[in-house]
Write a structure and sequence with these properties.
The chain has 3 helices and no strands. It is mostly helical.
Length: 102
């Protein structure tokens, strides 16, 4: 009786290990992210943070000095993100024009 129980436990354990560590035939990794799509998402996040910061400042949750420093930091990040987006879009446009002329 003990050997039957031990064999059943070993079989169940082996099945669990195989199930947990085996990979399916094809993995869906989601859509491919580009630097441009990441920057667009980041731009939206920064704008949302600026909106939230303004709301909380107007609610009286932040002193003026903290608000000004955090606002300046977010605006600098937004400017950097927008500049890189413009640069990447310009490069993509140039590449498309170059490809169309060939």
């Amino acid at each position: 009786m003990n050997t039957v129980a031990a064999m059943a436990c070993m079989l169940i354990t082996t099945g669990c290990i195989v199930y947990v560590f085996s990979l399916p035939g094809r993995l869906y990794l989601g859509p491919q992210k580009t630097r441009l799509s990441y920057l667009r998402e980041r731009k939206e996040a920064v704008y949302e943070n600026l909106h939230d910061l303004n709301f909380e400042y107007n609610s009286g949750k932040f002193p003026d000095s903290d608000y000004q420093s955090m606002k300046a930091s977010l605006e600098e990040e937004a400017a950097a993100v927008l500049a890189e987006i413009a640069r990447l879009e310009e490069a993509a446009t140039q590449a498309a024009l170059k490809g169309a002329s060939n």
